[in-house]
Amino acid sequence: MNVDGKPYRSIWLGADGEQVEIIDQALLPHTFQVVTLRTLSDAARAIREMLVRGAPLIGATAAYGFCLGLRDGAADDDLARIGEELIICRPTAVNLRWAVERMQRILSPLEPGKRMQAAYAEAARICEEDVAVNEAIGSHGLALIEEAWQRRGRSGAVSVLTHCNAGWLATVDWGTALAPIYKAHARGIPVRVWVDETRPRSQGAALTAWELAAAGIEHQLIVDNAGGHLMQHGEVDLCIVGTDRTTASGDVCNKIGTYLKALAARDNSVPFYVALPGSTIDWTMDDGFKIPIEERSGDEVLWVPGRTRSGQVEQVRIAPEATTAVNPAFDVTPAHLVTGLITERGVCEASATGLAGLFPEMV
Amino acid sequence: MNVDGKPYRSIWLGADGEQVEIIDQALLPHTFQVVTLRTLSDAARAIREMLVRGAPLIGATAAYGFCLGLRDGAADDDLARIGEELIICRPTAVNLRWAVERMQRILSPLEPGKRMQAAYAEAARICEEDVAVNEAIGSHGLALIEEAWQRRGRSGAVSVLTHCNAGWLATVDWGTALAPIYKAHARGIPVRVWVDETRPRSQGAALTAWELAAAGIEHQLIVDNAGGHLMQHGEVDLCIVGTDRTTASGDVCNKIGTYLKALAARDNSVPFYVALPGSTIDWTMDDGFKIPIEERSGDEVLWVPGRTRSGQVEQVRIAPEATTAVNPAFDVTPAHLVTGLITERGVCEASATGLAGLFPEMV
Question: What is the ipTM, given to two decimal places?
Fold first, then answer.
């Protein structure tokens, strides 16, 4: 997607064909800085310290990190060593392990001398696959925005509410929930995005708002409390959010607060869509309430990071010393509150039947 | 209520019987500082700069400010002068005008030489009336917490979720939504409070958490996104919130985000109560969606105040420079989502019939 008119991905191969470049997302939204990864340690640090985040982008960074690691040796032992060094960075990230195992599976049968070139080819393939999946999600979601534009009689702008960041920064390009918005903007449909702040980590304020500002798409930041009121007053045409895991029955586990917006959407007859790559469907699970919910540190609630008026990035505490906080990171939106799931294969009902129709090979 | 074991009100007469003392709420939760009001200008500044806030407390401060103003003259002209200087501080505050007009009505018929003493008596009466109303709300609400305690089989703790600050700091004492919690705590019923942060002004984190910490009541701060998830998992026994205005039909206008919690409470069969003095019922209005909603500055969304690690109170910006924000301050929860209204006369259904039963003289 564009940053100040120049197209970017969230990760790309350097001009020398060896080094890898990323955007340091920990500095956003206050500083846009490209960082060069020259070694396996550079890649591991980028994942561990969250210069890159978002499951697909973590996978892509691990794949390229694997390439960089091969420069110190490409024997069978090296394949194991590199994999271990990467997987330990964020042990619970599913895409990290997936990417490492895919690289090992592709490279082990080859002679060591041929592994480096094959690794770069495979890392590029992982990236291209992610881009293609997200672009397809964008095209299917675009049709829903076009419908909303028709319902408005093609006047004003289509107002889309989104929660958290499911944009291109979380993937290699396009994003999931934001892909339809980028497509609509490119198509000339006027869109206006309500960006939920998404406390406690404020990915909406820090990342989604930054993406949309960089792309020149009209948007307004709102507190997480405001979406229901806006829906009551007809200010939201549709909601599109991402998801971390979707069950085979269509229950959606996504960033904390998604469920409240889905309730408000249902109460006000606002369509509520969830955009997802098929790879995030958990076919082994048919009840969202069985998904374990990560409890993160209360410090994320008690301390808010930002830029002071003098330009420094600092954290400020918003509560008394004696107060502690509880911080569940995700919630589950039951399938019956979801209008539809937007996948790379099309849009379906959030149900076992709907998903089985699009992914018959999985059931 | 208690602060570090010592009982306080939010406003009180000094030991000399003339000066007035308040807590500088603009410094909370980071500093607890008592400020002495010696002149009318002191009182006006306290209201204007929000050292005091909350409709009942603003009214009480205006009443005592009136007393301080009489020290410079108590003629008829002075009554008008003092009133004007106070009302201009926050022109839209209903209780401010109400208190000023009440003082003028009581004092005008008296000889100037008798006005000062009568003024202090009336200011004290305004405070005592507020305390009595809130304590009665507390007693009626206590019965609901006791019921929840019985439903739990008197085990664990009753978990109450609240939004914004409707505590003693917003009134002269007790508060509205928090009064039942203070009563339950005093009665020995174990209570645990989920404190919604309440973005954008974070009154939950800054004021409700501070009140509960000072009173030694178990509480946890949560982001506004988390309440629905906690209700889904049985972690909330009941919700109690305050209200800025309630219609004759029982619709509740309260701090932005209240509606989302009411939806989640309904979806999870959690009782949702609203605590209010009868004086905040708007008997002229029977549709909450006709209440005009204040739109406040987007800067409240974009900038978050707090205390840095080095101890300074600063604001940090959480979004890119190019991003603007929309900031509706209140929302309306329709009566059908409200389990009951807790008033000084008892608990009633949130409906025209329910309210008419408790306030027959008003209909």
Answer: 0.95
